[in-house]
Amino acid sequence: MHSPQPTPLNLDRDVVVVGAGPAGLMAARRLSKAGVGVAVLEARDRVGGRTWSDTVDGAWLEIGGQWVSPDQSELLALLDELGMETYERYRDGDSVYISPDGTRTRYAGDRFPVGGKTADEMERLIQLLDALSAEIGATEPWAHPRARELDTISFHHWLRRQSDDEEACQNVGLFIAGGMLTKPAHAFSALQAVLMAASAGSFSHLVDEDFILDRRVVGGMQSVSEAMAAELGDDVHLSTPVRAVRWDEAGVTVVSDRVTVRARKVIMAVPPNLYTRVSYDPPLPRRQHQLHQHFSLGLVIKVHAVYETPFWREDGLSGTGFGAGELVQEVYDNTNHGDTRGTLVAFVSDEKADAAFALPALERRRRILESLASYLGDRALEPVVYHESDWGSEEWTRGAYAASFDLGGLTRYGADQRTPVGPIHWASSDLAAEGYQHVEGALRMGRATAEELLGEPAAPSRGHAP
């Protein structure tokens, strides 16, 4: 016998927010503190979006986004306001570099141990990208006089126009392609790479793991969203995917599986690739349809390997390793605060992830652990817990870490990413300038969108439903 379906909840609010990740919750928090009635609708059974801290096989893991860098002022201010603490990523000891010919080298400092010519070329490319990111900036890169020139050549080919040193090009490309956009460097433009660098303050910041991967949150990054959601209480509704947004001059009706909300405005605080999971009536304009088709997430496997002890430290290693030609292109010590066990986090990106996912699960695990062992020794082959974060299979994400445009898309559509459609507004880390594709960018977009709505002429409050 089927149990009766729960009666749908009907609410009147000022603003309805779709998505309970950091962007949506920040928007709702800012609006609520200003006395605006809000409802947050989330498809998942949890808050946090692309941040997720959970226990897997007895090991506590940061399945999603996790790091805090010194320039992330919005996130740092929120952590301080919420009374949350951070701790430094372990980084004492030597790092490991694996060259294109497979040679393994231990090194200290923040520059790869490459030959003199390659080192000079890497430095020159980094300085060139630093200059471009400073000149073009993160706010409106599409408006720069050189925007079209840089947006119609892939980052792969742009690098090789600047240098004939293949190792230098691969190493510099790694920090954007594998490390950030999680797409092959031939699949996105040089302008998209410049935006990524500018959003972090400079390209030099991206190649300095001690800056970009500086600290972690005690209790996990998801706890930031959980704290914001706790403040909002019953205004956050989980396990209720939004199916339709119906809008007219009077406002919107947002229909989800368990809740229907009538409001003046709606904030779509989900990744852009999920916009089309919702039916809009009337349909979105042609411009939005086209934009969304040229804006996609990348692909990465975030690998967690937990060991009885952080054995690499005994050998004077930091746990950090890089190899542009390896299956695992990056590995870091990800040991949790106060934990006696050691945890490594490793990344398999873009086309390497395609190849890994084509393998049976046990074979994929074997090859990934062998790649880890090439950096840190054979003890890496036998973790007590092994887990792969596969965000590409997550129904309400479908990729990582954030959306980027295909060739030419940033200049063609970038200026329209956040253009409202009637009462529909857009907010996510994918649309950020500073903090693009990080929690920082999500929080900035949530706050900015809320403040845009607060700056509009007031309408009669829809308040909290009894």
TrEMBL record:
Cofactor: FAD
Stretches assigned to the Amine oxidase domain: 23-454
Keywords linked to the UniProt accession: Oxidoreductase
Domain of life assignment: Bacteria
Classification via InterPro entries: Amino_oxidase (IPR002937), FAD/NAD-bd_sf (IPR036188), Flavin_amine_oxidase (IPR001613), Flavin_MAO (IPR050703)
Residue intervals passing through the bilayer: none
Gene3D superfamilies, alphabetized: FAD/NAD(P)-binding domain
Pfam families: Amino_oxidase (PF01593)
Keyword Oxidoreductase set for record: yes
Family designation: Belongs to the flavin monoamine oxidase family.
Name of the featured protein: FAD-dependent oxidoreductase
Species the sequence originates in: Streptomyces lycii
